[in-house]
Amino acid sequence: MKIERPSRNATMWFRLLVVASIVSPAATAAEIYDPPRYCDAAALRVDASLRAVDFRNPQLGVAVGAHGAVLLTNDGGNSWQASESTVPFQLDDVAWLDDQHVAAAGGVYDPITGISRGVVVFSADGGRRWWRAADQELPRLRTLRVRAADGALVAAGDWSAVSLQREYESRDGGKTWKSTGELDGPANIKSEPSSQDLLAWVTATRRPVAIRDAVRTGDGVIWAVGDHGVILKRSSEQDPWEFSRAPGNQTGVLIISKQPTTVAWPLLGREALEARNRVALLILQKQTPRQFDSTSSSLDLVRQAAAAAGVSAVDMEAAAGDGPTGDGLRQRAANWMSIHRPAAVVIDQSLDQTTKTAFAEAAISFGAQRVIGYSFESRGSMMLHQSAMLPRTGVLASDLWQDAARIIAPQDDRVHSISLRSLYDSGSSKVRGDTVTSGLRLIRGQTLDSEMESATRRQLQISQARLNHAKQVEQLIQNSHSADNFAAGVKGLLDQTAKGDRQRLAWSIYLRLATANPPPRDLAAYNKAMLAELQSRFAGSSLAWYASLRIKAISKSEEWKRLRAVSKSLQSRSQVQAASAEVVPVSPFQVGTQAVSQASAIVPLKVVDTTPVDATPKTTKPDFVDLNWEFHPLALVMREAARRRGDDNQLQSPDSVSANLRRLLGRGEGAWANLLRLQGPGVIAAHATNRPPKLDARLDDECWRSALPPAGSGPHVWCAYDEQFLYLAIRTPADKFQDDANFPSSDQIRDQNLTPVDRLTVSIDSDVDLLTSFNFQFSRSGRTHDSIDGYPQWQPTWYVASRPAGGVVITELAINRRDLVDLPIVPGQTWFVKAQTIAAGDPTFFQCMPRPDDWKRIVFY
Question: Cβ distance 146 to 152 under 8 Å?
């Protein structure tokens, strides 16, 4: 059993580089983001999972965790008292400087934008009282330590675009912070434990609880903290582990999901906040890694969303295939059941049958009294409707859906009803009642100890009134006769909505514009009006900064010039439907009856005036500057794109690079630096060709012969061009791009619903702002869908052909250049391109905050 703690020793090896000093709390994370009203952090701290523990001496110790929980002991763990940390966010580490000075650090992510926000609290009286530090420009922090060389407090966490570092120091007990230049080398941030790691603790302690941190005091006592507020103590190697706090606490309900977007979020909230069960969430997916210059991992975001719903523990681990040798599916299932020992297990029915069976059998063998399967929009023995009221918390089930989605997948506006079906019950009774544990005998430690105030009658009335919001939003979009009329309607609706519910509603209106049927006649103007409302109403938040940036993008971008043209020509969706019913013209690349080429085009709608209109609203500048946003790489890239386009009507040298981008490039490593450089691995060289490819997906044409095949599994992209077309060749792993030939065909020629099948999506950003792009989707059999940022009204001319070749699928595309840019492509231009596969059943999302590692730069020669 290994006890992991951040190293307390450090050596000076690099020069001191102070990039950003943090001195005045102009805007704190609490002003940027607050947990939802139904998440009562003060009450949930009693049961909060603990993430870290540290002892100054054998008598004086502090443990910290979720919801800003801080527990203090000054009698060697005989008793633990809660201290008011002043923050509702997760604290990930704690460190003592001396008997009086102690600090804790953690953080949170803004909804929608995912901006990383650091939180530091410190105490100068031995942990009895805590104050918020000047932390407003820090990113999410994960470790704290005292540097042996000089006694400074050192924190490490997410990479910061402000300082271009991940490590910070404080020389005044945690009050103020500045970047250190990572004097001790790369920050040491420990990885998340696997089921094997957590099981080792369960075996050692003989307690069914996940241990998250441990420390040894000077007298040899080992202290361990973990889920459900548990603190364990072992006096010596010969002694057994004993509870120091929360004896017997363990998971009551374990919910197992395939991926974050299939988590039954209202079910989590109902079981934890309403039924007061201790709930743990396990997602059977490998978490996305936290790269050198990225911020959150998928697990970070899920934990934040789950904490708001009252969930006590969240873990993420692939079901099989990426663990230690011999750690197969059944073994992993047994590991997790041994760790939690839940009374009830709820399993996502979208998992494959082998996985569902393995976890159901493991649950039964480890004593679970009930196993339930959940699915969406289907019939079951129990239903949690999407509009159901959760009376204790005073919210709608849809509220929990939307609040979670704004954190884990901001573009996902789906709200589901949840069906539950009994798979196993130790008794003869069926699942009945308002919770999955109805009728079961739970031990005391499987239910929450804290008491939360029930919703007031007024709160219930307010929530009930919001049942009509979906219908009101639909009517608002369809019945508004102009963008101004729409903007006035949005403002009135939000004014009548409770303050805590406004951002949720405003964002859902913005998302609904993309799927409105029929779409507004002037879609671009409606979109800009909604963004302007987000910008003005939520001024000071990162959502407002994002809205402002996107308004500038759609006002000037090459992509939205074409969408505005379609909006002006389109009188109703019937025009698009009529056009789609026409016979598709024969592809100019057709090579005979045996060819696999598929024509996927119609004659585009007539292009009218595409002159960009700068309708950026004039707003009063806030009295503070959010450096985390001002220096965010996306904001810098957008400003560079605007500079190159000459949005301010100033001539710019196309070869020059702004100082802030040179600052990012100067780091020489990381996903953002890789994307922004013009040469090096990952940059796609596109050469002009006099002989277009045959479009038979064989890559034996002259334009592809000089292209070197990239390393790795893909998808990988090659590019060529001539005066008329842009050509792309893509190599995709066959297991990620399954054939859909046997899937029922549709009468619709283009813009088909591709969600039920595997598809490849290609995004092209011709003005390199990463905020707007042309999107092309297609299946192996040639089903297609095209859009601009998800808006399907755009109707370009393009052709696609795919062919399996061993373990990969080769695809060739030809896209009419005039549907992308007005002027011919010339050497020296650069674009961004993204190619990704989407599995059958998974929705298509167009990320509002792009990940740099998803995109590649095309350089035209």
Answer: yes
H helix count then E strand count, the chain: 21, 37
Tokens of 179: 């970047």
| CB hemisphere CA count around 38 (13 angstroms) | 31
Partners of residue 716 on adjacent β-strands: 731
Contact (Cβ atoms closer than 8 angstroms) between residue 155 and residue 120? yes
DSSP summary character for residue 277: B
User: In this predicted structure, what is the pLDDT of residue 143?
Assistant: 94
Whole-number Å distance between alpha carbons of 636 and 152: 33
Q: Secondary structure of 566-586 in the HEC alphabet?
A: HHHHCCCHHHHHHHHCCCCCC
Residues found in the chain: 861
Enter the DSSP assignment of 96: E
Amino acid at 404: A
Cα 275 to the center of its chain, rounded Å: 28
| pLDDT for res 2 | 40
Q: 263-274 burial by CB neighbour count: b if 16+ within 10 A, else e?
A: bbbbbbbbbbbb
**CB-neighbour burial class of residue 46 (10 A; exposed 0-12, middle 13-18, buried 19+):** middle
Residue 15 is predicted with a pLDDT of 28
Contact 18, 178 (CB under 8 A): yes
At residue 662, the 3 state secondary structure works out as: helix
Q: Cβ distance 52 to 213 under 8 Å? A: yes
Q: How many CB atoms lie within 10 A of CB 705?
A: 8
- Rounded CA separation 575/581 (Å): 10
Contact 217, 58 (CB under 8 A): yes
* Nearest in space to 273 (alpha carbons), one of 509, 453, 18, 525: 453
Nearest Cα neighbor of 844 from 386, 285, 531, 413 is 413
Tokens matching residue 56: 């100054």
Q: Report the SS3 class of residue 302.
A: helix
Asked whether the beta carbons of 244 and 223 are under 8 A apart, the reply is: yes
Classify residue 587 by its DSSP letter: P
So what's the pLDDT on residue 619?
Answer: 46
Helix (H, G, I), strand (E, B) or coil at 724: coil
Q: Is the peptide bond before 715 cis (omega within 30 degrees of 0)?
A: yes
The single residue listed with the structure tokens 């002259």 is 702
How is the chain split among helix, strand and coil, in percent rounded to 5?
A: 30, 25, 50
d(CA 735, CA 809): 9
CB 554 within 8 Å of CB 772:
yes
Distance of alpha carbon 628 from alpha carbon 640, whole angstroms: 18
pLDDT at 184: 59
**Nearest alpha carbon to residue 322 among 212, 210, 194, 201:** 194
pLDDT of amino acid 643: 82
In tens, the pLDDT along 423-446 reads 999 875 555 668 999 999 999 999
Residue 679: count other Cβ atoms within 10 Å of its Cβ.
8
The C-alpha atoms of residue 531 and residue 546 are separated, in whole angstroms, by 9
Question: What are the residue ranges in the chain where pLDDT is below 70?
Answer: 1-32, 181-188, 289-296, 320-327, 428-433, 567-587, 590-624, 648-657, 667-669, 706-714, 747-749
Q: How far apart are CA 124 and CA 734, in angstroms?
A: 60
Largest CA distance in the chain: 86
Are 463 and 388 contacting, i.e. CB atoms less than 8 angstroms apart?
Answer: no
Q: Kind of pairing, strands 784-788 and 774-778?
A: antiparallel
Question: What sign does the dihedral 173-175-181-187 (CA atoms) show?
Answer: positive
- The DSSP call for residue 447 is B
CA distances to 195, 308, 322, 684, 708 from 298, rounded to whole Å, are 18, 16, 17, 28, 33
Instruction: Say what the pLDDT of residue 682 is.
Output: 80
User: Whole-angstrom Cα distance, residue 256 to residue 436?
Assistant: 14
Look at residue 707 in the predicted model and tell me its pLDDT.
Answer: 63
